[in-house]
Structures are given as structure tokens and as C-alpha cells.
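Meet my pick.
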Amino acid sequence: MTAPSTTPRIAVVIPSYKVIRHIADVVAAVGAEVELIYCVDDACPEGSGDFIEANISDPRVRVLRHEVNQGVGGAVMTGYRQAIADGATIAVKIDGDGQMDPTLLPQFIAPILRGEADYTKGNRFWDLRQIKQMPLLRRIGNLGLSFLSKASSGYWDLFDPTNGYTAISCSVASHLPMGQISKRYFFETDILFRLNTMRAVVVDIPMDARYGDEESGLKVGRILGEFAFKHLRNTCKRIAYNYFLRDLSVASFELLAAIGLLGLAAIFGGWHWWHSVEDGVATPLGTVMIATVAAVSGLQFLLAFVGYDIASVPRRPLTALLVPRRQP
């Protein structure tokens, strides 16, 4: 195995959609440790790409353009592909609206460079004093989304899933199915799901919440149902991949037992309860006990499966094991 390079190439990907008020300051704050900066003009109606080329002279900056708006996920994937093609070691994603402090970048890349992680992401909930800066609605939404994300991604030890300040090893990114990752607001959680199916190691990086005069395009009422459906879909897919396609463990049988027993309790108990109501006759104690025992046993098997799943969070980084491959 060849030794890792002593001079890693760090790239920064900045989705640039309606950010002309902040983008110059964001780029100026990116440290000298970064060699490449990709500003992705995602068919911005303000002409972000033209603005950057006309007003930012930093030689590290390269504008990538989309003819059709693809969403923040699509912009990030475009940046990842270019970083991989240019031989970058790590790609860091920073928003162009000034919410994310570029001076924190060394903290995000350090665990990857040390071989302790494949992907890092920010966590704004680590300091209770700083959380007060976050709008109340965002705080409540993040709490709910964090639990759903834990189940759908399998990273039970992570929090703040919608945090877009991330860094990824390019060797790991090159193996992501980029064409299948959600292109819009769900992409932060969807990429966690994809990373878990690869068994990549993900680490939270503590950071402060920072909000200015930017406007978020994420409307809770609009995306609540969509996010709930996608989380449920990814949960089912992750369990199928990890417990029945790639592996078959004791947890696989615990889950099957839980589904069978809980299904039996619901169908058997519900059927007898319905007939009891219709006939006006009390259900025999033995019938009630069968449904009760099935339900309690099913819950025990389900809790045993969840406990196994929580303990199975990936711990062995993939970065040193994977050979980078070019994305189509």
C-alpha cells in the first residue's frame, strides 16, 4: 500500500445561488490551507457566476455552471465531481450565504487527515448557550429531524442532520452513487444514508450557530411530509441493505420475529376484539393473553434489534482502504 500524500489538496465547494451579498466575504475568509475553491452557479437568477468572475480575483476560485437549477445537492455533487477529477484529497462544503465560518475548516478536515473519519459534519447543538441564537422554529424542527435521521441513516450518535457544513474524503466521495443522491434540501440526510450503506465513519464537529440577514429557502410546512416519506423510505432501504442483502446477523432474525409477533398481535387481537364488540360477548382470557404475549414479545425483539443497530454504527474508516475512482 502506498503511503498517503504529505501535502493533501483541500478543495472547497460553495453552492452559489442568490448569494452575491455574501460570497465575496466567504471566499476571502477561506484560509491558505485550501488549494481549490469551486463556486457552483446553480442557474442563479442573480447571475452569481458572472458576479464572482467579475469581482473576485482569488486565483483559487473556479466557477462551475448549471444550465438548469438542480438544487443545493446537485450543486454539491458537481463540486465533488470536479474536486475528484482535479485530484483533491478532501472536499469541504460551505454555504455562500455567510452562515458558516470558513475559519473552522481545519477542524473539519483534521479527523479525515488523521484517518479517524471519512466524513465530518457540523453540530450546532453542542453548546447550549449558543443554541439560543438559532430561531425557535429551526430548533424544534432540527430536534424532530435529528431523530428521524438517526433511524434512516443509521448514525445514532450524530445530531443536527440538516447542518450543511461538511467535509468528505474524496476517495470515499468517488464511490458515492452521486446520481441517486437527493438534489434538493434532503441531500444532507440522504448522503448520510448512502455513507452508512458504504459503512463510512462520520464524525460530528462542534460549531456555534450563526445567523445573519440571510433568508432560508427551507419552509417547514412545505417539506414536512416529503421529509417524513423519504426518511421512512431510507430506513427501510438501509435495513434491507445492511441486514438482509449484505449481511445476515442475529439482528435480522430479531427484526423478523418482531414483525411477525407484532403482526400476529394486531391481526389476531383486532379480529377477536371486533367480534367481541359485534357479538356483545367478552373475549376469553386465553385469547387476550395470546395477543398480549405476542405484542410484548414482539416489542422485546424490536428493542433488541434497535439496540443492535445502535451498537453497529461504523467505526473503521474507509479512506485508506478505497482506491479513488473517476465519477461519470
Notes: The beta strands are 10-16, 36-42, 61-66, 90-93, 119-123, 166-169, 202-206. The radius of gyration is 23 Å.
